[in-house]
């Protein structure tokens, strides 16, 4: 057993205990440690090795091997042979099979621990001659890798992720490397040093490298300069390329395809710590031409999700919720270094995000750029006429744009993705946007656009058009939507909120969007739709199209002033419906399946089911008394009911019993998947449901202005469900509980005037 040299470490204690505990489990023979390059996997493995040397606990031999990226079976055999005394000139002349037999003969008689550091792919233990660790022989294999997939291929019984350090641990490691003498050399330096440490994102390799580089910097200006460099171009910081990026770039180079490498670099267009929606990102990739396996965006989503999963498994991305990911700051800096410095000139990125820029960069900096991101700045006007023959992606979202000049888009012949979203002061588009003849993705969501120019008809290659939350939109010219003959994605939820129907001629928004629906019916390639419908006639027009129902993912029904009943059964063919919002339907008294629950002709095989429906929002339906139909939405994750003054029950006990009697089977629990429940301004609400149903996934409840709701019929495990309940203090104090211990396990957040 050889003790290995190691520097003092910070923050690995809990992971070390977890690994050591796993090694004591008899049924665990193979343990995989995985994590980002530079996170401390080798240090952790070294600590475990040295702990075995100090307390071997019955093992005969401990073997440490560094498995290089270009390893071979022969090289591994030679290293093991040196450890167990087999290596000599005669032995080296044997075949790999012969060497494997010799190694197996020796190790099969011993109880061993084998450490394999830095695995990039599966090592075939049988070919090497290593006996497989088992309950019978009691031997152990512990390895480190950057790829979760390697853990699977090595059949690890325990897969343990080595995480980046937290803020306190990061600061401790950083100040150890800088030294107290430097930190105390000026009153301002300690606080500035904490800001520098924060830029490292808890990655030990970066903390150590930057800490050492700053160890002799004893004036505040040097630290302020370091902060600016790390924020804007971290690769210029001393030692970053050689000591941080060089090890990390092996992870980039080892990705299996150019497509995956290009997709990874695309993440660097976003700001630091930005939470990125997976689906939106994949749509950009598709329209940019990075995903070329499928012509359909719905199928391309499968390829995109697979790529994201592979990048997560390679520890190059981090999960940030079910539908979101983020990129570690240091990985993003490395990607920017590759995209802005190492790529061929015509493939380079230009990224200046979140810098509070008041003006767009000089036009000379745009030439030769393939992808540009200026998001999250304060740019108000785009007066210049840049020449960008290679530009494919342009992010201008989250600025203060008011004016885009007619010449701005003139020399961007290959632009495919244009994101102008969240520029609320942008009221109109320049007509020469029609010259973007290669454009495939146009995102205008959250802008102040009032009218779509008729010349957009020239954008015949457009595949994705996002008009979500364009509240001021008042006109879409007739025949414009039909000109997008290959459109696959159309979104307009929250669009045209302030438009008074019929006030503008030649407008497909008239008739509660009935004209728009007629044009959408002509689109043969449409397969993702988010739409707002504002009249019973428009809904009838929509439901007459099987294809539109089949591709609808989000549906808003608003301002149905003439309807007293919504027959939910009419929506049952919308198999992909994920979000339903019903609002401002003042005369609607009931949402139900057919005209009466007692008259339903349902069986176990034909019961309507909204299996895809995950989020439901009901608001300002002033005569609605319940939403019992939700028993047919078994996968509901979020329910919000606001401003329904006649609402008495969420689930009507009478209707539940009627439905159960008709179908002949117990109704499913509609709250089995529910995570969020929001009830506001429901003065007549007396109950959610009569029985205490299980809420296994519930984490968040908010209740406000529901004075008659005195009991929450919640049956949940307070140890499993960490529930936050928001409401007024007086309501909380009067609330009745089935189990008082459950009350004590909840986090109560007081709200006043509807504000938390």
Automatic annotation (TrEMBL):
Transmembrane segments: none annotated. Pfam families: LRR_8 (PF13855), LRR_RPS2 (PF23247), NB-ARC (PF00931), WHD_DRP (PF23559). Residues 18-183 form the NB-ARC domain. This is Disease resistance protein RPS5-like isoform X2. One of its GO terms (biological process) is defense response. Coiled coil: none annotated. Residues 597-712 form the Disease resistance protein At4g27190-like leucine-rich repeats domain. Residues 269-334 form the Disease resistance protein winged helix domain. The lineage of its organism: Eukaryota, Viridiplantae, Streptophyta, Embryophyta, Tracheophyta. Belongs to the disease resistance NB-LRR family. GO terms for molecular function: ADP binding; ATP binding. Keywords: ATP-binding, Leucine-rich repeat, Nucleotide-binding, Plant defense, Repeat. PANTHER family: NB-ARC DOMAIN-CONTAINING PROTEIN (PTHR33463:SF220), NB-ARC DOMAIN-CONTAINING PROTEIN-RELATED (PTHR33463).
């Amino acid at each position: 057993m050889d003790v290995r040299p190691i520097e003092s470490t910070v923050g690995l204690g809990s992971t070390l205990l977890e690994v050591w505990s796993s090694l004591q489990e008899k049924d665990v023979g193979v343990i995989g440690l995985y994590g980002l390059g530079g996170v401390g996997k080798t240090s952790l493995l070294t600590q475990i090795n040295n702990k075995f040397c100090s307390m071997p606990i019955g093992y005969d031999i401990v073997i440490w091997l560094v498995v290089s990226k270009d390893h071979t079976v022969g090289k591994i055999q030679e290293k093991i042979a040196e450890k167990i005394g087999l290596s000599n000139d005669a032995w080296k002349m044997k075949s790999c099979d012969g060497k494997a037999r010799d190694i197996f003969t020796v190790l099969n008689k011993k109880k061993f621990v084998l450490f394999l550091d830095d695995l990039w792919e599966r090592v075939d233990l049988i070919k090497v001659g290593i006996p497989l660790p088992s309950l019978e022989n009691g031997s152990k294999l512990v390895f480190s890798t950057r790829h979760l997939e390697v853990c699977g291929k090595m059949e690890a019984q325990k897969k343990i992720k080595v995480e980046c350090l937290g803020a306190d641990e990061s600061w401790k490691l950083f100040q150890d490397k800088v030294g107290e003498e430097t930190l105390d050399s000026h009153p301002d330096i300690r606080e500035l040093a904490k800001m520098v440490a924060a830029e490292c994102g808890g990655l030990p390799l970066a903390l150590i490298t930057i800490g050492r580089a700053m160890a002799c910097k004893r004036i505040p200006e040097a630290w302020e300069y370091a902060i600016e460099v790390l924020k804007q171009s971290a690769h210029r910081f001393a030692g970053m390329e050689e000591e941080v990026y060089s090890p990390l770039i092996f992870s980039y180079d080892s990705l299996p395809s150019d497509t995956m490498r290009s997709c990874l670099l695309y993440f660097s267009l976003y700001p630091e710590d930005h939470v990125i929606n997976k689906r939106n990102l994949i749509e950009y990739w598709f329209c940019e031409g990075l995903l070329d396996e499928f012509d359909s965006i719905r199928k391309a989503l499968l390829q995109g999700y697979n790529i994201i999963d592979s990048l997560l498994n390679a520890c190059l991305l981090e999960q940030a919720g079910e539908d979101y990911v983020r990129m570690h700051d240091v990985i993003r800096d490395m990607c920017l270094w590759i995209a802005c410095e190492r790529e061929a000139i015509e493939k380079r990125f230009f990224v200046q995000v979140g810098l509070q820029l008041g003006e767009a960069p000089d036009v000379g900096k745009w030439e030769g750029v393939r992808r540009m991101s200026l998001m999250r700045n304060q740019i108000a006007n785009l007066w210049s006429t840049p020449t960008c023959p290679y530009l494919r992606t342009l992010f201008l979202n989250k600025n203060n744009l008011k004016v885009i000049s007619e010449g701005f888009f003139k020399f961007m012949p290959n632009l495919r993705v244009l994101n102008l979203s969240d520029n609320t002061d942008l009221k109109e588009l320049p007509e020469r946007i029609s010259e973007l003849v290669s454009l495939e993705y146009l995102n205008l969501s959250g802008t102040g656009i009032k009218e779509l120019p008729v010349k957009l008809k020239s954008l015949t290659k457009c595949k994705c058009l996002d008009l979500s939350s364009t509240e001021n939109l008042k006109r879409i010219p007739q025949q414009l939507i039909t000109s997008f003959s290959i459109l696959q994605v159309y979104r307009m939820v929250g669009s045209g909120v302030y438009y008074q129907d019929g006030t503008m001629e030649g407008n497909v928004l008239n008739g509660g969007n009935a004209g728009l629906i007629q044009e959408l019916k002509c689109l043969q390639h449409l397969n993702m739709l988010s739409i707002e419908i504002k009249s019973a006639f428009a809904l009838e027009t929509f439901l007459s199209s099987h294809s539109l129902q089949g591709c609808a993912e989000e549906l808003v029904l608003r301002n149905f002033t003439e309807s007293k009943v919504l027959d939910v059964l009419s929506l049952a063919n919308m198999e992909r419906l994920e979000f339903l919002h019903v609002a401002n339907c003042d005369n609607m008294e009931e949402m139900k399946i057919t005209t009466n629950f007692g008259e339903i002709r349902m069986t176990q095989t034909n019961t309507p089911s909204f299996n895809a429906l995950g989020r439901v929002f009901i608001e300002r339906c002033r005569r609605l008394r319940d939403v019992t139909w939700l028993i047919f939405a078994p996968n509901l994750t979020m329910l919000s009911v606001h401003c329904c003054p006649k609402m008495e029950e969420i689930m009507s006990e009478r209707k539940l019993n009627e439905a159960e009697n008709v179908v002949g089977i117990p109704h499913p629990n509609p709250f089995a998947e529910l995570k969020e429940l929001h009830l506001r301004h429901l003065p007549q609400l007396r109950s959610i449901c009569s029985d205490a149903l299980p809420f296994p996934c519930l984490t968040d409840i908010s209740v406000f202005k529901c004075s008659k709701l005195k009991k929450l019929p919640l049956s949940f495990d307070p140890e499993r469900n960490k529930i936050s309940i928001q409401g007024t203090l007086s309501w909380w104090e009067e609330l009745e509980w089935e189990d008082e211990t459950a009350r004590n396990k909840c986090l109560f957040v007081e709200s006043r005037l509807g504000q938390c």
